[in-house]
Amino acid sequence: MASPGRKMAVWPVVALFIFGFSLIANSQNIIALVGSGSNLPTPLYSHWVEEYNKLSPGVQVRYLSTGTVKGMEDISRGVGDFAAGEVPMNDEELKTAKFPILHIPTVLVAIVPIYHVPGVKGNLRFSGPVLADIFLGSIRNWDDPMIKEINPGQALPHLEITVVHRTEGKGSNYIFADFLSKASSKWRSQIGKTPSPAWPVGISANRGEDMMEKVKNTSGAIGYIELGFTITDNSVGVGHVQNASGKFVGASQASIANAYRSAEKSIPADFRASLTNVSGNDAYPIVSFTWLYVPEKSSDPERSRALAHFLEWALSMGEQSAEQHGYTPLPASLTTKVLAKVHSLH
Fold first, then answer.
1. How far apart are CA 224 and CA 221, in angstroms?
2. How many domains does the chain have?
3. Of 5, 16, 135, 1, whose CA–CA distance to 66 is shortest?
4. Radius of gyration of the chain from Cα atoms?
5. CA-based nearest residue to 276, from 266, 263, 267
6. pTM
């Protein structure tokens, strides 16, 4: 069952793809593993899949970017071999899934506010309450006193703000809303923590690439995106965000890792943890795991072994490419624990 705010849609796309891909693989005696889910880690996962498929011709992996909630729905119904996303499945969803589901963290990710404001120099600063008021439609212009107060010295124009938000069911929505729910009582009471916010204002963007295009092509626009997308395209401004210690911090490998370290002692054994707005002077506040949702048991032991081998490779050799794609690798201490969980799939 879906929890409130997780609007599930039953689409046959993944099932049809798996069926066709499996027919081809079976004719060649190849194990075909198929996953679906979040767009947020797609650049990295596409690279992993390409490299792994070269090394392991007997096991071929495919990943479909369908959105976090869609991926969760598919794997819960037993469609596909794994799914990916940034929303921790709740106890009810785990209870009603076809098989027990494990949450396997792969990398740390950060959501950053992006904007297109002519004349602005450097990085604009945003607090949680200011971001909440912008995305709630309470702050409508870039020279609003609340924005000016935390950006002294900036020549902010009298320009209308155009809000750009993601469509429903997205992991980036959930991470952003999780942070805003902790930082703004107004957001918490009106919208809450959900991958499908009831946006009161703005235009929508389905994928991260769409978000980037709409913000950079709209004067006065603001949106939010995974940090990695801004590394390959620096045509938009990237904001610094006030953390729980009151410091305005930019997202970087160091500040993202600092967020994990601040929360490390409170992370449960099943890895379903929120890393947003944690304490820590140098911690970036909009950070999350991105997980693979993996069935703990399978009706086909051979496929389980193949999936475990792929995950072991991704969490060891594959992690080396995470940073170059704009993601933060898991700390070694956590990787050891995650690999132990993966080994249980054998």
1. 10
2. 2
3. 16
4. 20
5. 263
6. 0.91
Residue identified by tokens 């992991």 is 171
Which tokens in the block code for residue 2?
């879906």
103 and 115 belong to one structural domain? no
Gap between the Cα atoms of 34 and 333, Å rounded: 29
pLDDT in the model for residue 310: 96
* Residue 241, both tokens: 């965000």
Say yes or no: 135 and 226 in one domain: yes
- Domain range for 26 is 13-107+290-343
pLDDT value, residue 344: 86
Three-state secondary structure readout of 27-76: HCCCEEEEEEECCCCHHHHHHHHHHHHHHCCCEEEEEEECCHHHHHHHHH
Average pLDDT per consecutive 10 residues, the chain (346 residues; last block may be shorter): 42 46 55 96 95 95 96 95 97 95 97 96 96 98 98 96 98 98 98 98 96 97 96 91 98 97 96 97 98 90 93 91 92 95 86
Task: Please say whether the beta carbons of 195 and 171 come within 8 A.
Answer: yes
Instruction: Specify whether 97 is located in the same domain as 223.
Output: no
Q: Strand 162-166 and strand 82-85: pairing? A: unpaired
